[in-house]
Write a structure and sequence with these properties.
438 residues, alpha/beta, Rossmann fold, 3 domains, 5-stranded parallel β-sheet, 15 strands, globular, binds iron/sulfur cluster, NadA_sf
């Protein structure tokens, strides 16, 4: 699917706000800075929702890209991207995440959530290169699922994910060691493990590999309850990372009491818990969050209801629990998209997810009133690091026979990470009457 050139986009909204031709505000005026200037000066996540988060010292940096791409106008970049894509034909596939800016999404062959895009990569094995216009963990997942001959390219290496970075592999290994000391290793006489690790798709390949090595599984925001049920069939408890909110919202909806969901803070001994709390736990939640979805509040929902009587409030399950509880519905990006597509009467929708997706849905469905709960324009900082200039650079390098910014997962990590992904694909929803947890 190729989406036409945007006539409305977050970039254009930001320019209008900056020029004073529209109301509203942004979380930072630095959003309008050239991304290569941000790459040159900023070792962090860049302007946007994650700008206050601390990037690990090991986070990849993006070196300077050639001046011709930094100096090119948007019209020139558009012409060069289209020409390079046409010449490369089936040799290249461009993937665009729902949260990516429209100025990049317009060139995507597929647009979707992280897992849809990773599986799309497997559908076109003739493509020698997959240019993933998303963030680092997504490109890693595409590399895990694609063929060894296919090169997965992240156009800007600085496009990480602050949430994924919150579960560092060394901290997770240390946590596991401490939990094994508390629970003891090995299964009981019924073959039940003391704890099963579950990682959200939004995690590094190293974490997926860890989970695979320890009998665990990956989940997405669409299948988290099915996956937790799978884990409870094999273990007394679940260690869920990196997103505490998805873990808490999902486990709560399954009937697990909040007092049996202690949080693990990796900077404290036993994660800041005592042994009794860990023994009584059903879900141990890692101390991670998404800074985009953390911005949504119950006050925003109350305001939307007051100003738009009858509004349908749908939020992503990465939002904090009080926000999910106050919304009418919560679900993945794909759920949100389908809910809007399925509305047969003109409807007001207040959406709690990333602004690029919300504005795109609003443009695609003018019969509805669709707006973001957060009145401040504050995109995902790391998605925002991808700009047409980087895409043009990646495509034209391929034409010259050079693969830049290849994301490649080592075999020692890839094998167990694939186990964890395959377990997820094989997990089936439990019968409705079954009891969650134990
Ligand atoms: S929206 Fe949140 S979880 Fe998704 S890539 Fe951005 S920081 Fe990461």
């Amino acid at each position: 699917m190729t989406i036409p050139a945007p006539t409305a986009s977050v970039d254009l909204t930001l320019r209008d706000i900056s020029a004073g031709t529209t109301g509203g505000g942004t979380c930072t005026t630095e959003l309008l800075d050239a991304p290569w200037d941000v790459d040159a000066r900023d070792p962090g996540y860049g302007p946007g929702a994650s700008m206050a988060d601390t990037a690990p010292a090991t986070a990849p940096r993006q070196g300077e890209i050639p001046q011709e791409y930094r100096a090119a106008s948007s019209e020139e970049l558009d012409r060069r991207i289209r020409a390079a894509k046409a010449e490369l034909g089936d040799r290249v596939m461009v993937l665009g995440h729902f949260y990516q800016r429209d100025e990049v999404v317009q060139y995507a062959d597929y647009v979707g959530d992280s897992f849809q895009l990773a599986t799309a990569a497997t559908a076109r094995t003739e493509a020698e290169a997959i240019i993933f216009c998303g963030v680092h963990f997504m490109a890693e997942t595409a590399d895990l699922l694609s063929t060894p001959e296919q090169a997965v390219i992240l156009p800007n290496l600085a496009a990480g994910c602050s949430m994924a970075d919150m579960a560092d592999i060394d901290q997770v290994e240390e946590c596991w060691e401490q939990l094994m000391e508390v629970y003891g290793e090995g299964e009981d006489a019924d073959g039940i493990a003391p704890i099963v690790p579950v990682t959200y798709m939004n995690s590094s390949a190293a974490i997926k590999g860890f989970v695979g090595r320890h009998g665990g599984i990956v989940c997405t925001s669409s299948n988290a309850s099915t996956v937790l049920q799978w884990a409870f069939e094999r273990g007394r408890r679940v260690l869920f990372f990196p997103d505490q909110h998805l873990g808490r919202n999902t486990a709560k909806a399954m009937g697990i009491p909040l007092e049996q969901m202690p949080m693990w803070n990796p900077r404290k001994p036993l994660g800041g818990n005592d042994e009794q709390a860990l023994h009584e736990a059903q879900v141990v939640l890692w101390h991670g969050f998404c800074s985009v979805h953390k911005r949504f509040t119950t006050d925003q929902i109350a305001k939307a209801r007051a100003e738009h009587p009858g509004v349908r409030v749908i939020v992503h399950p990465e939002c904090p629990m009080p926000v999910v509880d106050a919304a009418d519905e919560s679900g993945s990006t794909d759920y949100i998209r389908k809910a809007i597509e399925g509305a047969t009467e003109p409807t007001s929708f207040a959406i709690g997810t990333e602004i690029n997706l919300v504005q795109r849905l609003a443009a695609q469905h003018p019969q509805h009133t669709i707006f973001c709960l957060d009145p401040v324009v504050c995109p995902c900082s790391t998605m925002y690091r991808i700009h047409p200039g980087y895409l043009a650079w990646a495509l034209e390098s391929l034409l010259e026979g050079e693969v830049i910014n290849r994301i490649s997962v080592g075999q020692d990590v890839a094998e167990p990470a694939r186990f964890a992904l395959e377990r997820m694909l094989a997990a089936k929803p439990a019968p409705v009457s079954s009891t969650p947890g134990r």
